[in-house]
Amino acid sequence: MRHTPLFLRSALGLALLAGVAHAAPAKPPKELPPKPSVADVIKASKADEWRPLDPENTVYMELPAGRVIIELAPAFAPNTAANIRALVRERYFDGLFIIRSQDGFVVQWGDPDEENPRPFKAKKTVKAEFTVPIKGAGAFTRLPDRDGYAPQVGHANGFPAARDPAKGETWLTHCYGMVGVARDNDADTGNGSQLYVVTGQAPRQLDRNITVVGRVVSGMPLLSVMPRGTGALGFYEKAEERTPITSVRMAADLPEAQRSRFEVMRTDSASFQAVVEAQRNRGGPWTKVAAGHVDLCNAPIPVREQK
Amino acid sequence: MRHTPLFLRSALGLALLAGVAHAAPAKPPKELPPKPSVADVIKASKADEWRPLDPENTVYMELPAGRVIIELAPAFAPNTAANIRALVRERYFDGLFIIRSQDGFVVQWGDPDEENPRPFKAKKTVKAEFTVPIKGAGAFTRLPDRDGYAPQVGHANGFPAARDPAKGETWLTHCYGMVGVARDNDADTGNGSQLYVVTGQAPRQLDRNITVVGRVVSGMPLLSVMPRGTGALGFYEKAEERTPITSVRMAADLPEAQRSRFEVMRTDSASFQAVVEAQRNRGGPWTKVAAGHVDLCNAPIPVREQK
After folding, report:
1. Record: contact B104-A176, CB cut-off 8 A
2. CA gyration radius for chain B?
3. How many CB atoms neighbour CB A257 within 10 A?
4. CA distances from residue B131 to A87, A220, B201, B211, B286 in whole angstroms, order as listed
5. B4 contacts in A (CB within 8 Å)?
6. What pTM did the predictor assign?
7. Is it the case that residue B246 has pLDDT exceeding 70?
8. Which of A215, A289, A304, B141 could link B208 by a cystine bridge, Cβ 3.0 to 4.6 Å?
9. Can you give the three-state secondary structure of B114-170, one letter per residue?
């Protein structure tokens, strides 16, 4: 019985990341109850409301505990995504490490050796891609719920994003599971050879200060439990504390048999609107007060393994 | 050099939880630079801007990996806090387990045996304490930054809280590290024998739906890395996956020598205002765009060990 309390959240087990909803609460398909749960909506969704991952934008990071799958977002960081593909294809990451785990913030990976860093052929610096022009960034499904950090927030093809129409800029937001590019103080010093994933409360203050290049669509539990580092910023102080990265590959470079087959709910679909509304105003016997609001980083983006 | 990227967040290593700020950005003490970091403010803070934990409201949960310290909030959940004290004092929790770890959501502890649950003398049910009257809840330092979930958010003596003046109600909010009371579908079925801590993106949709009784002020890294459960809702499926709870004690019941000596920055102090402003509008060579906003669950509440 004590297991009921957080039951309404259960459907989010499926949802690996946070997301957004369409302006108008969606009209759920007829077969759904008046206040469907996220699980109800997913079950009733149509096949064409899901999209498979593009193998050219899908990165597999193999850890001893299993596979982490990252979807790159070239629409928001074309040059950085290209450099990460180049780094992966020269097998730069193989044998490197998880080097940092700061509680309630991020887990970071790359080369721990700052004195004699591993050389690579890919670009050493990539111009900052903190924001991109709204024109050309593709579809945006705006979330009606207000946001404190940006004039508009919503969804861009499965990625949480924000927009400033006055400046004509859009950017990916630092929600749980989003992947960013470590850089030095100069804006243009990132290159993708050291990446981090958000594992704590969304550090939205980093938005527009660093290039966000994608999100983890599978395997977050492998990264989020990394023991917290005891050094400054959660960096590991001893080599043996670091988890080795077995290999990193582009899905496109693996034979079909070795590829994972995940699909993401289309964020411009009616079912996605219904998913977010199910999170915004929950039904069921447990809920006493519906929130009437959903935060950009608190709505699920359903991901599932294809049959 | 690759270690610089998230440096500005480093001061938050000290800050175990999220918090709020005063309406007016604080005027930092003279010795501070124009845009001090959180660490700068903490270093310059005065002794009387900190308060020690009250031993009667401080719970030590001893795990094999170390001590977790929970501060109870009797102003918001007097009856539940009293029942938890009673459960602790009859040593109810000793030898029970961490029973659930749902990625990006919560870690929960208590009795895993639903068929033959461990009996206890404390109350079996406590009336819901989802909200309390604003009158009598004590000081509230309002955060000027807008919030989507509540008319007002701010800080009540070190706890993140929200208020609805129209209804005359106030409640603690589900920020990272906040501790809540598991319940069944009926509102009045919680008793404190099974508790959870928020380990993921703040599930604010739970606000006003469940009794929030306190927050973890030390030891979050021991709970947040619990391997995720593979059962529904992240419950562990095998007994051997559960981490045992060595013991749970009230600080007041331990001899001085066995007590931890932590203090929390007073959330009605000028330095706390400066801490939150340092998070809202960061300075330093790394930041290119200051957020100009801080979310209730994204501002730090500094905690430190007393000298």
Report:
1. yes
2. 19
3. 5
4. 53, 34, 22, 8, 41
5. 183-185
6. 0.91
7. yes
8. A289
9. CCCCCCCCCCCCCCCCCCEECCCCCCCEECCCCCCCCCEEEEECCEEEEEECCCCEE
**A44-48, A303-307, B277-281, B291-295: segment of lowest average pLDDT:** A303-307
Residue ranges of chain A with pLDDT lower than 50?
1-26
How many angstroms separate the CA of residue A298 from the nearest CA in chain B?
Answer: 7
- The arrangement of strands across the sheet holding B106-110 comes to B243-244, B97-102, B106-110, B195-198, B178-181, B212-218, B66-72, B58-63, B247-250
- Under an 8 A CB cutoff, do B282 and A106 touch? no
A234/B contact by beta carbon, under 8 A: yes
- Average pLDDT over all residues of chain A: 91
Distance of CA A290 to the CA centre of its chain: 26
Q: H or E stretch including B62?
A: strand B58-63
Tokens 């801590």, residue located:
B197
Of A114, A285, A293, the CB nearest to B185: A285
pLDDT band of B306, cuts 50, 70, 90: confident
In order of start, what are the domains of chain A with their CATH numbers? 54-261 (2.40.100.10)
Beta-carbon contacts of B117 under 8 Å, excluding residues fewer than 6 positions away, are B111
Residue of chain B minimizing CA distance to A200: B200
- What CA–CA distances, in Å, run from B124 to B83, B87, B112, B120? 9, 10, 17, 8
For B200, residues 6+ apart whose C-beta sits below 8 A from its C-beta are: A176, B102, B103, B104, B105, B106, B176
pLDDT at B30: 61
- CB-CB: which of A194, A232, A286 is closest to B10? A232
Per-position b or e across A190-199, b if 16+ CB within 10 A of its CB = bbbbbbbbbb
